[in-house]
Write a structure and sequence with these properties.
This protein is of the alpha+beta class and about 220 residues long. It has a domain at about 70-215. Helix content is about 25%, strand content about 10%. The protein contains five helices and five strands, in the order αββααββααβ. It has a three-stranded antiparallel β-sheet. It has a two-stranded antiparallel sheet with strand order 3-4. Strand 3 (about 165-170) and strand 4 form a beta hairpin. The structure holds heme C (4 copies). One heme C binds near residues 110 and 168.
């Protein structure tokens, strides 16, 4: 909690500093969060503001801050379980919690985009100093890593990299487990879908919705 407060204070301080500096050139700074970036022209480079990353931020193209609405995952499947459709806009912005009553929050999936202090087991790896929300993402030049940046396919681990390992407790036993792409996405997508189905069995009639056992509803066979 105190770390979050400290980060908040630091963030406000840094934002204030940039506002001050920029207001020497532009008179429009210091209004709302959205307007604060209106000084950015397409050919300007983004100002290193809001986030306080300790790591160098990979830069995203300035002014191009939209997330594709949909993704096709598993295009390069090594098995007969092929492509899976994923509507990012639905999952990120609509009431897609298991009970259908709330928006889940970016870090439900992008688990490394939050400070270490916010992580719960088995998660320990952090790539961002603040909890990512849509506003945080928009104001930051730090990229969101794809899941596959870390969760490799079996047999496709690049030289010099290692497969992520998580310490998990299963049936009272604690051990470590390798999290390849299959495990990562299955645990993420299916745990929630199974919980949603338990609470709302009627979801089964929704086109495209799958429980963990409905392999070929989620995957197109190939
Ligand atoms: C909610 C949708 C969903 C369901 C249900 C699902 N999967 Fe997957 N599966 C995925 C996603 C997403 C990936 C990883 C895609 C990526 O890495 O791009 C994946 C990856 C895989 C892979 C690894 C493919 C590769 O070579 O990288 C296999 C094999 C697989 N799933 C088999 C299954 C089987 C068998 C079932 C049923 C028991 C199943 N899946 C159920 C979404 C699903
Ligand atoms: C920067 C690397 C990185 C990225 C990006 C990343 N992960 Fe992970 N993931 C890890 C590591 C490392 C672990 C093991 C625990 C830890 O260190 O936090 C892990 C653990 C997990 C687990 C826990 C598995 C379990 O058995 O409980 C899931 C699920 C998961 N990741 C899903 C995802 C998904 C989905 C994405 C993309 C939206 C993603 N990860 C992006 C590195 C990453
Ligand atoms: C249900 C899981 C889930 C939620 C919730 C979610 N994302 Fe994603 N996001 C993904 C997946 C899966 C991808 C596809 C790329 C990949 O496989 O890593 C992705 C891709 C992205 C990308 C593109 C990365 C790139 O450069 O290819 C951005 C940016 C992003 N998400 C930001 C967000 C933000 C901001 C939020 C919250 C408002 C959010 N996401 C919520 C799962 C999720
Ligand atoms: C925290 C919960 C949660 C996570 C994580 C999640 N989903 Fe979903 N998903 C839902 C819910 C709830 C629905 C049904 C929403 C409704 O119809 O009200 C759904 C619906 C879907 C549908 C049906 C079409 C649509 O967009 O409504 C697909 C396909 C799907 N999810 C794929 C995925 C994949 C692939 C992943 C992992 C990358 C994933 N989901 C992760 C909760 C989740």
């Amino acid at each position: 909690m105190s770390k979050i407060m400290k980060n908040l204070v630091r963030l406000i301080g840094i934002t204030a500093f940039f506002c001050l500096a920029l207001s020497m050139f532009f008179s429009s700074c210091g209004t709302s969060g959205k307007d604060a970036r209106s000084y950015l022209k397409a050919d300007d480079t983004p100002t290193p503001t809001a986030n306080t990353n300790s790591q160098p931020a990979a830069s995203a193209p300035a002014g191009d801050k939209t997330i594709p609405e949909t993704f096709t995952l598993c295009k390069d499947s090594l098995s007969e379980y092929g492509e899976t459709a994923f509507n990012h806009a639905n999952h990120a912005f609509k009431n897609y919690s298991p009970d259908g009553k709330s928006v889940m929050g970016c870090v439900e999936c992008h688990h490394t985009d939050q400070p270490k202090s916010a992580l719960k087991p088995p998660y320990v790896t952090s790539e961002r100093d603040v909890v990512m929300t849509n506003d945080v993402w928009k104001a930051s030049s730090q990229k969101v890593s794809n899941c596959r940046t870390c969760h490799f396919q079996d047999g496709n681990v690049p030289d010099g990299k290692t497969m992520p390992v998580a310490t998990v407790t299963d049936a009272g036993k604690t051990g470590s487990k390798e999290i390849n792409n299959e495990v990562a996405y299955h645990v993420n997508c299916n745990t929630c879908h199974d919980a949603a189905f338990k609470l709302r069995p009627e979801l089964k009639s929704k086109p495209g919705f799958s429980t963990s056992k409905d392999c070929t509803i989620c995957h197109k066979s190939q």
